[in-house]
Amino acid sequence: MDPVLLPGPQGPQIFTPIPSLSLASKLDNQERSSCLISIRPHEAAQRAFGESERRGYGLSLGLRSPRTHTGLPSLGKGPWFGLVLGVPVTYSGTYKPTGSKHRARAAPDPPPLFDDTSGAYSSQPGGYPAPGADVTFNVNHLLGDPMANMAMAYGSSIASHGKDMVHKELHRFVSVNKLKYFFAVDTAYVAKKLGLLVFPYTHQNWEVQYSRDVPLPPRQDLNAPDLYIPTMAFITYVLLAGMALGIQKRFSPEVLGLCASTALVWVVIEVLALLLGVYLATVRSDLSTFHLLAYSGYKYVGMILSVLTGLVFGSDGYYVAWAWTSSALMYFLVRSLRTAALGPDSVGGSAPRQRLQLYLTLGAAAFQPLIIYWLTFHLVR
Amino acid sequence: MSNLGQFDTDFYQSNYTIDNQEQSCNDSNAYGNLYGSGKILLKFIFRAYILSLFFLFSELGINFDHIWQKTLTVLNPLKPADGSIMNETDLTGPVLFCVALGATLLLAGKVQFGYVYGISAIGCLGIHALLNLMSSSGVSCGCVASVLGYCLLPMVILSSFAIFFSLQDAFGIVSALVIIGWCSLSASKIFISALDMEGQQLLIAYPCALFYGLFALLTVF
């Protein structure tokens, strides 16, 4: 067998598997019996390794790091022992469960090279939860090439590890529960809200309703902002831009990406500006970032309508639609943000502060027609 | 079936050597016997091959009955779906349909496998994120990929139309819209019944319609 380069605890290391001839002489009966591979914490493997917190796959013999390794970083342990081998191989030399390992255990662990993101894993001393696979392989049925098996198992464990790392990072930035509130919509709400965005003049009650200081989800309250409509409207706008450019024979995939990123950048700028304004005006409200994102995303509905009208009825239709949707959106925003900015406990606040809030909402509203025009006029030329 | 061809030639080769070795008197008689026993042998080899395929598929977890059931569910979008059919994440059917779509596009003259894969991947991720946010119980990415792949079957039908006549006229656009509606309705129906979301079918159907609309763009233009 060829020496193989594999990641080790201190970086890639070369391991030379020794054919199983030497294996039999070095195994005891337990290890020999555990040659049937299973991707599950295997007590025989742990016994063979001689320590309870050894995480490993059921294959008791594997490519192990050289004897000199002491403090394995936790990241190194997991995927390291994810190697599932089709052929029992062992490293040169016998494995001593005592000795250097226990000495190292007494000393404090060296600082790990990676963050221990395997939160669920570290709590289980003896187990490595397999990435959803409780499969028992028979040695005969695997691919003939043991290196391919190793690569496959290593790759799958790396993939699951990567997925968990992504989840953890995501949870650090975005609270999924808060985000779920904005997506708790149903068809009736979406239909009514779209109607409201186009014709808000007859709507009377703009207050967001609360139940015990918690705002009601959009399903039960028409005035609550949601993120479903802005997201879908944004994606539809990008696709519509692509289609409009295609009709004008100006389409290419780069232009689509350009449109999408331009729109996204403008949304980000607007949300940041609003956040800055809210902070400066010290508005004591529960207008979080997602609220502002929702309110600034509602303009995409107007944009889509303008572009559609412009495509069907030409330039005049575009301007008429632009004027109508802009005024409707301005009215909608002013009415919604004024009541939303006050919050559940609407203390009056000082007069200058209230004026500041008013200026903020008026400024945000006045910005909408400009940005709608800027992002759509080149599509209906 | 290429293996079978190999069997065929092997068989005939061995037949020839046996023929050479045995010193038989009547040539035609010998040939007749050999052909008869050859047919029986051929049938036996064929059956053994099919049996081994069957064992291989069951070992790999490919259940043709389930695949056929799910395909029937997709093909009839108005019939309410059973929520439990999506319990096992089966990616065989979807991959098969994706490859069939690529093949029919190829027959129509458009080599766009890369776009098919790219759109599928991005669309799956997007709809997976959306469904996780909209439903009370989460979904796995494999389940989403499986459902979306199964509902790609009408799109394969559309692209097989595109082989024979161009879809850029009014009839083509109308049929593309009908097929998109069909795909997204069945996908949203399966999602609703599997995830137990009420009152959100049209909301789920819309992003699915966008997703399949991209495929229709590939097929039509």
From TrEMBL, chain A:
Keywords from the named record: Endoplasmic reticulum, Golgi apparatus, Membrane, Protein transport, Transmembrane, Transmembrane helix, Transport
Signal peptide per UniProt: none
Annotated stretches, region: Disordered: 97-121
Pfam families: YIF1
Transmembrane segments: 227-249, 255-280, 292-313, 358-376
Record's subcellular location: Endoplasmic reticulum membrane; Golgi apparatus membrane
GO biological process: endoplasmic reticulum to Golgi vesicle-mediated transport; protein transport
InterPro entries xrefs: Yif1_fam (IPR005578)
Any one annotated GO CC term: Golgi membrane
Keyword Glycoprotein: no
Membrane-topology descriptor: Multi-pass membrane protein
Similarity comment: family membership: Belongs to the YIF1 family.
Function: Has a role in transport between endoplasmic reticulum and Golgi.
Name used for this protein in its record: Protein YIF1
Native species: Diceros bicornis minor
Automatic annotation (TrEMBL), chain B:
One GO cellular component term noted in the UniProt record for this chain: trans-Golgi network
Primary localization: membrane
GO biological process, any: endoplasmic reticulum to Golgi vesicle-mediated transport
Keyword annotations: Membrane, Transmembrane, Transmembrane helix
Domain of life per record: Eukaryota
Transmembrane stretches, start-end: 44-62, 115-135, 147-167, 173-195, 202-220
Subcellular location: Membrane
Entries under InterPro entries matching the protein: Yip1/4-like (IPR045231)
Bilayer disposition of the protein: Multi-pass membrane protein
Family note: Belongs to the YIP1 family.
Annotated protein name in UniProt: Protein YIPF
